[in-house]
Structure formats: structure tokens, C-alpha cells
Amino acid sequence: MRLRGMMVVLLASSLGACAKDSSVCTTRVTPEVCATPSNLRGVESVQGSWSSAPAPDLVAQPLEDGRYVQIALELYCPEGFPAPSEAPSVQAVTEIEGCVMRLTLVSPALEAPVVDVHTFRYGAGSTLDLTPACSTDEPSVDGRRYGFDGTILQFSSPSDQTGSDGVAYGCERIDSFELR
After folding, report:
1. pLDDT value at residue 36
2. For the domain bounded by 27-179, which CATH number is listed?
């Protein structure tokens, strides 16, 4: 009985270690996870906003398992960027279990929902190294900047945006999700 109890504690501590040390995290992705969009019921569409302020620094801690609903989309563009009259809108959910992350995204610019599944490990600083779990055509992404404070998860990525003058500008996109 004592040996069984020690094995349960050892197993539980190994599973829990994924959040702190992704090198011990085992990942398993079934075909259904890749093919099935998340349930977006009750998830509101988020209208993006433009800013000429510098993008905030993202500070991260280990991610928690759960369902994260997108609550904001901010585009940080250079000073003088002539913002179009309307920013992009999006409806998205990110689900994390162990070291597997599934994003379901719906946007007026898309014909159908996008399901994007990656395994991840923690990189240097506030970054994640992502490996596609469902497609061999998609490249791995090392150093994806993220922030997490225990409730709000943010992802940062470069995003070329076309200004109202028809010129493309290098902006930074920050998608914010709330753990619910």
C-alpha cells in the first residue's frame, strides 16, 4: 500500500511538472483534437484596436491548463500610421492541456474556423517554442513571445498592416485571452 501511494505521488508530481519544466512533459494529440473546433458558444467577437504607443513588455510564468477566451486584440503600429477606419475582428479560444495548445479562430476574413494545435516547451525569457502537432507542412516556431499572469494570457507577433494610405506597415499584434 505504501509503495502504491508513493507511485501515485510520483506520477502526480511528474504530470504537474509540465507547467514548470516542459522537458518532462509528455504530449499526446489525437486526430479528433486536430479536426474538431472548440465550442465557441458564449464567446464574443473582439474588435481590434490601434495604438501608436510602444507595445508593452510581456512577462510570463508557467501556463495553467484550461480554456482561455479572447478578450482583446491590440495592434501597435509606428507613430504616424494612418489607421484604417476598421480594425480586424476575431473570435477565438485557446485551450491548454499539459504541453498541448489548441487555438480555434473564427474571423470574417476566414471561410471556416481554423484549428491550430501545437505542442510547446518553454524557451528563453518569456517565449514558447511551438511544434505543430497536426501538420507536417507547418514550420516549428521558436521564441513565440507570450505573457501570463495567472489569469490573462497574451501572445505577441509581428503583423504587417495596410494603412489607409495603402502602404504596409510593420506593427506588433497582441492577442489577449482570459482563463475561464
Report:
1. 83
2. 2.40.128
